[in-house]
Design a protein that fits this description.
- This protein is of the alpha/beta class and 359 residues long.
- It contains 13 helices and 8 strands.
- It has an 8-stranded mixed beta sheet, with helices on both faces.
- Helix 12 links the parallel strand 6 (307-311) and strand 7 (333-337).
- Helix 4 (92-104) packs antiparallel against helix 5 (109-124) and helix 11 runs parallel beside helix 12 (321-329).
- It is elongated and about 70 Å long.
- The structure holds guanosine-5'-diphosphate and magnesium ion.
- Guanosine-5'-diphosphate (GDP) binds at residues 165, 167-173, 283, 311-312, 314, 337-340, 344.
Length: 359
């Protein structure tokens, strides 16, 4: 019952004569309705504000994504546009030219070949006749190739996200960004500082955890990463936290060590949190182009990667590697980073990505 309705209710009970009472009942009903209406309005307003805020952050991210992908767009579709001007009809010569453009735009050999093959088929069966149709065909093929977006699977409480990748790829930054997103979704997060290689790395993670307002479990520099994970799991259990995110050191140059270290962490998680939902996110730096794709291949030998976080898409012309990654590794890109700030990351949306390139 709303405030006004309660007031009338009180009056009603304090012994007025019947006529007043009846009136009061009428007013009470009306007041109740009004109050309910007012409550509904406030509720709706809050929801609208929330939705607006969500749309605003999505829109501003969309702008940043478009801005970030502008160089990729130029390298890829700008060049295709230029090339099309020089051709009268769609033929093998044109396909050859297109092949070169795709490869130099970091789409990668395997994906490029598949794209050209599909275009060739379309020319053969008459679906692609005019050069004006090339862009649309390309858009269709890329959309199909990138496929559906795949969000994080965090089905159990707690769930675990293990974050791996070479130094400088943006692991720590991504953990800050992802923590904040999860926190906003109402999840409680514990972060394990299992990159114990440098004290500075632990401090840096600490700063991000403060920004995201989540707890961090750490030990001193040089300690055993698996022991940090063990402590963090204990903290997660004690708190009843929803998600454990684990930062790791990425010393790919010492592959054997890295594999051992990741395997050891995996064993601790399996033992302490059997049946927990697990994500292993590989963090890649988009500015390194095909090199990032090779790294992904190396890491997939050492870990069961469930998703990729592709960072630094701002200011690189090498965004084409999204296609390359999908085609060559079949691992879904789950997040993209377009800047150094905490809100400069979003779940990868395949449709948005293609639109940002073509529109
Ligand atoms: N421009 C840009 N810089 C980024 C992005 N993500 C991370 N960085 C920067 O990349 C550098 C390395 O990031 P860090 O998280 O320390 O990488 P780590 O060694 O893998 O943990 C830092 O200077 C970050 O600010 C991004 O999406 N865009
Ligand atoms: Mg780091």
């Amino acid at each position: 019952m709303g405030f006004l309705a309660k007031m009338f209710d009180k009056n009603k009970k304090s012994g007025q004569d019947e006529s007043v009472d009846t009136k009061a009942v009428d007013i009470t009903d009306e007041a109740q309705e009004e109050t309910a209406e007012a409550e509904k309005t406030v509720d709706t307003a809050a929801k609208v504000a929330e939705a607006e805020e969500d749309t605003t952050t999505k829109q501003s991210f969309w702008k940043r994504l478009r801005g970030g992908l502008s160089k990729t767009k130029n390298a890829l579709l700008g060049s295709v546009d230029e090339m099309l001007k020089a051709f009268v009809k769609v033929d093998e010569d044109m396909l050859e030219e297109l092949e070169e453009i795709l490869i130099s735009a970091d789409v990668g050999m395997a994906a490029t070949e598949a794209i050209i093959e599909e275009l060739r088929d379309r020319i053969k069966d008459g679906r692609l006749k005019e050069k004006e149709q090339v862009m649309d065909a390309l858009r269709e093929i890329l959309t199909e190739m990138i496929g559906e977006s795949q969000p994080l699977t965090l089905d159990t409480k707690p769930s675990v996200i293990l974050v791996i990748g070479v130094n400088g790829a943006g692991k720590t930054t991504s953990i800050g960004k992802i923590s904040k997103r999860l926190k906003l979704q109402g999840k409680s997060v514990v972060v394990a500082a299992a990159d114990t290689f440098r004290a500075a790395a632990i401090d840096q993670l600490g700063v991000w955890c403060e920004r995201a307002d989540v707890d961090m479990i750490k030990q001193s520099e040089g300690s055993d990463p698996a022991a940090v994970v063990f402590d963090a799991i204990a903290a997660v259990k004690k708190k009843g936290a929803d998600v454990l995110i684990i930062d790791t050191a990425g010393r790919l140059q010492n592959k054997k060590n890295l594999m051992n270290e990741l395997a050891k962490i995996d064993r601790v998680i399996d033992r302490e949190l059997p049946g927990a939902s697990r994500e292993t996110l590989l963090v890649l730096d988009a500015t390194t182009g095909q090199n990032a794709v090779s790294q992904a291949k190396e890491f997939s030998n050492a870990a069961n990667i469930t998703g990729i976080t592709l960072n630094k898409l701002d200011g690189t012309a090498k965004g084409g590697i999204v296609i390359s990654i999908k085609k060559e590794l079949g691992i879904p890109v789950k997040f993209v980073g377009v800047g150094e700030k905490i809100d400069d990351m979003q779940e990868f949306d395949a449709a948005d990505f293609v639109s940002a390139l073509f529109e």
